[in-house]
Amino acid sequence: MAQDKSTRRPRAEPPKGFRDYFGAEVTERKAMLDKVAEVYHRYGFDPLETSAVETVEALGKFLPDVDRPNEGVFAWQDEDQDWLALRYDLTAPLARVAAQFRNDLPAPYRRYAMGPVWRNEKPGPGRFRQFYQCDADTVGAPSVAADAEICAMLSDALETVGIPRGDYIVRVNNRKVLNGVMEVAGVLDPTDPDRFANERGIVLRAIDKIDRLGEAGVRALLGEGRKDDSGDFTKGAGLSRLQIDTIMRFVDAPYAIKSDLNQAAALVAKTGGDTDVVNKLAVAGSTLADLFGPPSPETNQLRNFTALKVLRDIVQSSPQGLEGVQELETIADLLDRQGYGPDRILIDPGVVRGLGYYTGPVFEAELTFEILDEKGRKRQFGSVAGGGRYDDLVKRFTGQSVPATGVSIGVDRLLAALRAKGRSSADTQGPIVVTVMDRDRMADYMGMVADLRNAGLRAEVYLGNPKNFGNQLKYADKRQSPIAVIQGGNEAEKGSVILKDLILGAQIAQNATLEEWKDRPAQVEVPRSDLVAAARKMLGK
Amino acid sequence: MAQDKSTRRPRAEPPKGFRDYFGAEVTERKAMLDKVAEVYHRYGFDPLETSAVETVEALGKFLPDVDRPNEGVFAWQDEDQDWLALRYDLTAPLARVAAQFRNDLPAPYRRYAMGPVWRNEKPGPGRFRQFYQCDADTVGAPSVAADAEICAMLSDALETVGIPRGDYIVRVNNRKVLNGVMEVAGVLDPTDPDRFANERGIVLRAIDKIDRLGEAGVRALLGEGRKDDSGDFTKGAGLSRLQIDTIMRFVDAPYAIKSDLNQAAALVAKTGGDTDVVNKLAVAGSTLADLFGPPSPETNQLRNFTALKVLRDIVQSSPQGLEGVQELETIADLLDRQGYGPDRILIDPGVVRGLGYYTGPVFEAELTFEILDEKGRKRQFGSVAGGGRYDDLVKRFTGQSVPATGVSIGVDRLLAALRAKGRSSADTQGPIVVTVMDRDRMADYMGMVADLRNAGLRAEVYLGNPKNFGNQLKYADKRQSPIAVIQGGNEAEKGSVILKDLILGAQIAQNATLEEWKDRPAQVEVPRSDLVAAARKMLGK
């Protein structure tokens, strides 16, 4: 036990998968979240801040007979042997709060929450074990008006932080439509919801992989199974050909919508219809395959109309499916009449998210502009937010079903998008640096920064070793300082100070033709009493 | 293992010692921290956000040969068997960052940090296991100008959030003075710093208990030991009578300062001096015993001057002690010349905080106004922030000493103080509630809230079950809504809406004389197109 502790130094690094955020990284995120909070506030949502730590049983996901909780969360046992864990999202704590304070909270309860969550997952490039979420949820509102409100608010939030209309689309689907498809395909029995649960799980996972596996791959998974390139065999759902065809009609719904629109265009053209109408139909059809095509209110309106018809056709023998389509129509109508038309919010059967979890409408916000990826290739930015209706989460605690719907913004992704578009904003200018020429006159230098600060300017005195003046200017450079203030013995005697314009200085250094800078001196000497005014002038304030 | 899981519901509560923050509790804290951040920013400090999780070895405090880390932190082992823990303050992570990024960060590095920290301690009334800290530190600045800057910034921060000058005092002491006292008393050997470490520990703990144990109790602890009321015996430092007298001179320094001032007043009076001078000296002396007496620049100046003299007398044979007094004098001078006089920042040998940790100046901000405690008794509000110089924290990682100084604001205490003074600010007004008279016209109601929001007003539509109109008004009441908007069938036909002034309504309900409300109707009916204008008028906006 007698170790030599004095020789062992701790490693100066955070745990694997964690990182630090410096300066503008912090203020830019804060500026963005402040704007989002303003929108949420205007919609009547109240902030809620739960603690980072919850009991594992309140978070859910874990079986009481498992000794050590699963991977996925950071968990430990407290002094009473209860398992505690860091929250992995903001929805589970909300469900706990909604159950705990059900007699005190307003009903419905609209709340927003912003903060870090933790996942005990394998870290990767850009994937961290602590990251921010920004959620808004309405608990206790059964009507789809609540879902529509969330979609409208999401639109407003995106536009407020700097994603203009046309650069994003909120895509809406409904979990009930998917259930309807399951019912029609014979893998959901409304009188016995637990039956075929295994098959449905396989179907959902298969549908979600359409982009990667293609139609043949998905069909294989719906049937006997699929052997991948490495020879591994994944057992399928074992559905019949007819069942598979039914599921695939849903998977192919976007193509059906496209085909319907193009056929309509052809028919109108054949019967000598208005060319403008033909064009609109054709554009709506042709840009549908990539659902991110430049949206316009009119073509998207046509898509919405056709999507509802195609979906209704597929689920027509399922009451739940038809209810889902009806809800989508209501949502689209409610939003349209508030000014949130299909140029912003679009019905899209392709949204298949969080499948096990949601019970009604689901939505996803996609940014539709292109950025360059790390290899310089253009690609769509993709999803930055998503959510939907989950009516059973609070029930875990109380036994009573409580309707709830909400959205979660991926804070880091949205911030990356704003940076990619040059729309991230935060005051990142460094402070004015007052240099120290004479250590004994520190009080004078501190008096200068006090004057500058009292005038609202960001300023600091150099607090390192003042011996090497070059180091002081290097420091000012590292701080992105706009101005260095200098008062040596001569200036002190005269009662003056020198202001060096470091931004201009850097520009001059980069630019050979000094001519153009002639009328704007990079350095001025002014009376000490004019320090603040001269600094203001140099900053253009 | 076959448990019946379906019957077991999780408890809807947070872990012991954790709590939730709702609505204004969140926004008021945020508003306060935003103001503090603005001050820190103006002083050139940059934000830093480290993750909540650190390795236990980076946090320090734990021995490598202990299998399960001590109480005090929440810790667990990761998949590599490394111990991780939630940070217990914001200083340990800063030391890790300063070591890790020492080649990239500007030197000196000024940073601020705000966020929750976690302590695995016994929770109690008002004591939680997660709470906010708000720190500002300068790393790499050896001069006491850095300490002075922190004190000035702390003053500015307090005034900016709403504690006016005169309602607080920043008290400053110096760890080196205390070391000087130890040296003079023969329990510190500068040539062998580890010698007498045990005795010094007992001395420090004894000094810190002067308020509770009184002079006799402290003397007992400095000597053979002390038996408390329950009969428990605490072993003392075993000092001689002479050593004890020396330590007690320091403990009694405030009384010596008072006595000096009163003696001076008496002498000046005797020799027929200016009455004004006599009075000032007497006031400075008389209000010193309670160090929270109403400060004035002049009397505090006298106290500072006398405190420095008394301290210099006590430590005169210790070079380190004299250096400490000199540093205090420099700090007071630097601050005074920037306008931060002794009405705000006061030298006070009574500050004995974080004793094992600090290496130079230490400071503490006290609020000097009285509040009523839970039993209705008046008491001083007390300390809301503290800090000091710690030159050895980064050394743990790098082996090289890095000077550092900083302050930590107790966010919850400061917020409680602002609330006690009615100075906490946040927009806590509830939203305008648009009621639902006819479920089928939901789109119309949502159109109304959209109009109100687009005009910048906080508004929401009632999303609960609309059947019982009374419930809708109760909801509006719970939401502290200023206005309820009503459009029934009649109004819809006429194209009008009714606005009900709920604030006025509540006042009328409390007040019997309706006369005075006559000219301000609690309810108006206006054309739908005038909704926004009418709401604005009712809100007085």
Descriptive account of the structure:
The structure is a homodimer. Chain A has about 550 residues and is an alpha+beta fold. The first copy, chain A, has a domain at about 430-540: Rossmann fold, CATH 3.40.50. Helix content of chain A is about 40%, strand content about 20%. The first copy, chain A, has 19 helices and 19 strands. Chain A has helices at about 25-40, 55-60, 90-100, 145-160, 175-185, 195-205, 210-220, 240-250, 255-270, 275-285, 295-315, 320-335, 395-400, 410-420, 440-455, 470-480, 490-495, 500-510, 530-540, and strands at about 20, 45-50, 55, 75, 85, 110-120, 130-140, 170-175, 225, 235, 345, 360-370, 380-390, 405-410, 430-435, 460, 485, 495-500, 525. Chain A has an eight-stranded mixed β-sheet with strand order 2-6-7-14-13-12-8-11. In chain A, β12 (about 360-370) and β13 (about 380-390) form a beta hairpin. In chain A, α5 (about 175-185) runs antiparallel to α12 (about 320-335) and α9 (about 255-270) crosses α11 (about 295-315). The N and C termini of chain A lie far apart (about 65 Å). Residues about 1-5, about 60-70 and about 290-295 of chain A have low confidence and may be disordered. The interface between A and B is large, with 107 and 106 residues. β1 of chain A pairs antiparallel with β2 of chain B.
Write the SSE topology.
The structure is a homodimer of 541-residue chains.
Chain A: E1 21-22, H1 24-42, E2 46-49, E3 53-55, H2 56-59, E4 75-77, E5 83-86, H3 91-100, E6 109-118, E7 130-139, H4 144-161, E8 168-174, H5 175-184, H6 197-207, H7 210-222, E9 225-227, E10 233-235, H8 241-251, H9 253-270, H10 275-286, H11 297-314, H12 319-337, E11 345-347, E12 361-372, E13 378-389, H13 395-398, E14 404-410, H14 411-420, E15 432-434, H15 442-454, E16 459-461, H16 469-478, E17 483-486, H17 489-494, E18 496-501, H18 502-510, E19 523-527, H19 531-539
Parallel strand pairs in A: 2-6, 8-11, 15-16, 15-17
Antiparallel strand pairs in A: 3-5, 4-5, 6-7, 7-14, 8-12, 9-10, 12-13, 13-14, 17-18, 18-19
Helix pairs in contact in A: 1-4, 4-12, 5-8, 5-12, 6-7, 9-10, 9-11, 10-11, 11-12
